[in-house]
Amino acid sequence: MIRGIKNKLTGQCGEDAAAAFLKKKGYKIIERNYKNKIGEIDIIAKNKEDLIFVEVKTRKNEKFGTPAEAVTYYKKQKIVNTAKFYLSQNPTSLNIRFDVIEVYGSFDGSTFNLDEINHYEQVFPEV
């Protein structure tokens, strides 16, 4: 399998695992892979009091650092600006939160093998 395709499928499987994880915790998934002219947000979810913008990072291991460490300052700014645009189109009275979900697992070509999920809440400033 071509490496780029495998990485894309691994990321997609990681996002699927993260969405299932959030649903199990009682969150409602509003959108997945939301895109606008500024950028993309992997998952937009809500609970009783929060609207949550979630960045999902999937890795096989920590050879190149943790998945959460891959959410750089630039990436955070892009997510915040993308969220601001989303909120301009979809106003809400809910609190705004930015989370990161780390997914550890691997895709063997046909199956995604999930090892671990870590959910970090409110990891960077609000809008």
How would you spell out the order of helices and strands? HEEEHEE
What is the helix fraction of residues, given as a range? 25-40%
Low-confidence stretches: none
- What fraction of residues sit in β-strands? 35-45%
Main beta sheet strand tally, sense and closure:
5 strands, mixed
Number of strands: 5
Averaged pLDDT: 89
Overall morphology: globular
Name the structural class. alpha+beta
Strand order of the largest sheet: 1-2-3-4-5
Radius of gyration: 14 Å
Task: List the SSEs and their pairings.
Blueprint: H1 3-24, E1 28-35, E2 40-46, E3 50-59, H2 73-89, E4 95-107, E5 112-120
Parallel strand pairs: 3-4
Antiparallel strand pairs: 1-2, 2-3, 4-5
Q: What are the salient characteristics of this protein?
A:
single chain; 127 residues; alpha+beta; five-stranded mixed β-sheet; 2 helices; 5 strands; globular
How would you portray this structure in words?
The protein is an alpha+beta fold and 127 residues long. The chain is 31% helix and 37% strand. The chain has 2 helices and 5 strands. Strands 1-2-3-4-5 form a 5-stranded mixed sheet, with helices on both faces. The termini are far apart.
